[in-house]
From TrEMBL, chain A:
Taxonomic placement: Eukaryota, Metazoa, Chordata, Craniata, Vertebrata
Cited function: Required for mitoribosome formation and stability, and mitochondrial translation.
Region entry Disordered, spans: 255-276
Protein name listed in UniProt: Small ribosomal subunit protein uS2m
Record's keyword terms, sorted: Mitochondrion, Ribonucleoprotein, Ribosomal protein
GO biological process, one term: translation
Length: 276, 451
């Protein structure tokens, strides 16, 4: 096993060792070029932002493929390891290396979906149980105006929500897992509960995780700080841009409504929303 | 007949209509259907229960858990309270504008005198905010999106507080690292005086956050605050002060009587003491040979029992001043033992004037050393007896505190008898099993003077 595709390599070792001595193939350099041009892609008739999210993913992909953060994890022999085999590129010195090309594809899908949910004013809940990043995730969630849950997950929070949270509570429309496992290295309860409540999930699955129940798994490293920070930033930007887009579209529709009330007959309410 | 309980929607079973008599004294339309059925079946003697309630009112489960008061309801209550306050003021002939809560309480006590022992059962008229428990308003807006970003954790206030505190901790650490990197870091020795305050207790935190907490949550939060303070003692003062409450220091410093001088120039000091129903006044002279006169009688004759004389001896023995002072005292009330105890207290207090501050403190703590349990919270078991002395196995043979006889002076006994609880009285009423060899080992000596 010594196969490494050339574009996955960065410079030599750099940056700090993550906990457990995970291997670093590169270090975070200066941020890559922002906006490769076609951000204002053509907006389809119904206002769905298919353009920006894809562009976004392309930017990040390039940045990552420049070897900024390696997504690797130590070899894990468990049931989950079998499910993650398709995503693993290979292993070196007992470290599984995740195939970044697949990650890119999955990440693109996930970000696209997130952007759509955010565009439609859906409630997004960030879940992660690694206490090292709890503060980071909560701050990130607050900054984009969404919700976070990085604490002890009470049993019936999703399945028994009317009792725990209030009679007419609205459940999240999307749950994003920054860490699929809880502190005891078992699958987080919310994965199963979201599947039960038919809530789509996006999750960063590591080599010791089980991606089966997650709607949009994104194979990647969830243990090292730069990697988690990268993902946080990605989600944050996606959501903020989608919301911006939504505001733009609403303003546009409002203008159109003012100009020709009978012509289009479409107000901001005509835009698709998940709140109904 | 059993009163129908419509609200609970529970079927009633009443064997009331034996003989087919039906009573139509019901207001509820619910029962009309039932009554009609019953009337039809009136021919049969025994009636079976029919579940024919027209309206089944299901209890709102959420409301059962907690009485939810709407905002409008509370507002209405406040208006009613204000109007009622003015009426009350008029009734009492006072000015409605300057009618305070104390006036209200007095007026209510006057108008509705109540002989109930439980104070909380008496009629009260207070502002609705003090009566209705604080509640949360609805946590989300029209579109259903919750306001708080940690809403889905369940305990949003608590976790947001933890988040904020941790953020401050990170900031403080970052600042310190920066200072250290620049080399400007100084070991600040200014230790913030946190002595006069305590962390707020779990109930107070729950009130602050309007949220139920568990003990572990509370402990975790306090630990986080402590960690913040260990990093930097005066970090985030206003923030930390929110969670500190001042402690009224019980400075029960003993008033030291000033020395007085009599005609011969001898210094003396007077003081009083009491035990049970005995009241004593003692005059201790600075120089003497250990003579004690009680009510004009020598103590050997006044107190024939050895135990009482031991009590008199004890203050001097504690300070190693046996035979150095003369005492004249008067005592009244109570029996011999309580009189002895009262004199003992009076002498001890008087001796404070001749003694240094540290020794006064030492005397005060005489009760605490050796694990004495004076002033402890009494368990229901202890309260079983009339004088709250513990009735435990082996309590009698072993002396108070259940320890074996040979207890040296320095190891004060535990569980002394409750002496003068209302007053800072002399602690133990000691009861040595054999009155031999005193003062070599003054047994069963519990504290000295307890203030």
């Amino acid at each position: 096993m010594g196969l490494r595709p050339p574009h996955c390599w960065g410079g030599g070792r750099g940056g700090n060792d993550g906990p457990g001595g995970y291997m670093w193939l590169g270090s975070l350099g200066d941020p890559g070029p922002r906006g490769c041009g076609d951000e204002d892609s053509t907006v389809p008739g119904d206002g769905c932002p298919r353009g920006p999210s894809r562009v976004l993913a392309r930017i990040r992909e390039r940045r990552r493929l420049m070897g900024h953060v390696s997504l690797a994890h130590s070899c894990f022999c468990g049931v989950s390891a079998r499910f993650m085999e398709p995503y693993i590129f290979g292993s070196r010195l007992d470290q599984d290396i995740i195939d970044l090309e697949q990650t890119a594809v999955h990440l693109q899908l996930a970000l696209n979906f997130t952007a759509h949910v955010a565009y439609r004013k859906g409630i997004i809940l960030f879940v992660g149980r690694n206490r090292q990043f709890s503060h980071l995730i909560e701050t990130m969630a607050r900054d984009c105006g969404e919700y976070a849950h990085t604490r002890y997950f009470k049993g019936g929070l999703l399945t028994n929500a009317p009792l725990l949270l209030g009679p007419n509570v609205r459940l999240p429309d999307l749950i994003i897992f920054l860490h699929t496992l809880n502190n005891v290295f078992e699958p987080h309860v919310a994965v199963r509960d979201a599947a039960k409540m038919q809530i789509p999930t996006v999750g960063i699955v590591d080599t010791n995780c089980n991606p089966c129940l997650i709607t949009y798994p994104v194979p990647g490293n969830d243990d090292s700080p730069p990697s988690v920070r990268l993902f946080c930033r990605l989600f944050q930007t996606t959501i903020t841009r989608a919301k911006q887009k939504r505001r733009q579209m609403e303003a546009l529709y409002r203008l159109q409504g003012q100009e020709g009330p009978g012509a289009r007959g479409q107000g901001p309410a005509a835009l698709p929303s998940l709140a109904a | 007949m059993a009163a129908p309980c419509v609200s609970c929607g529970a079927p009633l079973s009443y064997r009331l209509f034996l003989g087919g008599r039906v009573s139509f004294a019901r207001r509820h339309g619910v029962w009309k259907a039932a009554a009609a059925e019953l009337q039809i079946g009136a021919g049969s003697q025994i009636l079976r229960l029919r579940h024919t309630t027209g309206v089944t009112t299901k209890k709102n489960v959420a409301a059962l858990r907690r009485e939810t008061y709407t905002v409008d309801f509370i507002k209405k209550q406040i208006e009613e309270f204000n109007i009622g306050k003015r009426h009350l003021a008029n009734m009492m002939g006072e000015d409605p504008e300057t009618f305070t809560q104390e006036d209200i309480d007095r007026a209510i006590a006057y108008l509705f005198p109540s002989g109930l022992f439980e104070k909380q059962a008496r009629p009260i008229m207070k502002h609705p905010e003090q009566i209705f428990p604080k509640q949360r308003a609805v946590q989300w807006g029209e579109d259903g999106r919750p306001f708080h970003f940690l809403f889905y954790t369940g305990k949003q206030s608590y976790y947001s507080l933890m988040h904020e505190t941790y953020g401050k901790l990170l900031d403080v650490e970052k600042r310190q690292n920066q200072l250290q990197a620049k080399g400007l870091f100084s070991e600040n020795t200014k230790t913030k005086d946190l002595i006069g305050s305590r962390w707020l207790i779990k109930e107070e935190l729950e009130d602050m956050l309007v949220e139920k907490l568990s003990d572990q949550d509370y402990a975790q939060f306090i630990r986080l605050l402590e960690r913040l303070l260990t990093v930097q003692r005066d970090a985030e003062e206003e923030f930390v002060q929110q969670f500190r409450r001042s402690v009224t220091i019980q400075s029960k410093k003993q008033l030291i009587e000033p020395l007085q001088y009599d005609e011969q120039g001898m210094a003396f000091s007077t003081s009083e003491g009491k035990r049970k129903s005995a009241r004593a006044k003692a005059v201790v002279y600075e120089h003497g040979s250990g003579r004690i006169k009680v009510n004009g009688i020598d103590y050997l004759l006044y107190f024939p029992v050895m135990q009482d004389r031991e009590q008199l001896m004890f203050p001097f023995h504690f300070l190693d001043r046996l035979g150095k002072h003369d005492v004249t005292c008067t005592v009244a009330g109570g029996g011999p033992s309580s009189q002895a105890g009262a004199i003992r207290l009076a002498m001890a207090k008087a001796l404070c004037s001749f003694v240094t501050e540290e020794e006064v403190e030492w005397m005060r703590q005489g009760a605490r050393r050796g694990g004495s349990r004076w002033g402890r919270e009494l368990s229901p078991r202890d309260l079983g007896t009339a004088d709250h002395r513990p009735t435990r196995q082996g309590a009698e043979e072993a002396g108070p505190g259940g320890r074996p006889q040979e207890v040296h002076l320095e190891e004060a006994l535990s569980a002394p008898t409750q002496a003068g609880r209302g007053d800072a009285g002399v602690c133990a009423h000691v009861r040595p099993t054999d009155g031999r060899d005193l003062p070599a080992s003054v047994r069963a000596c519990c504290g000295m003077v307890c203030f």
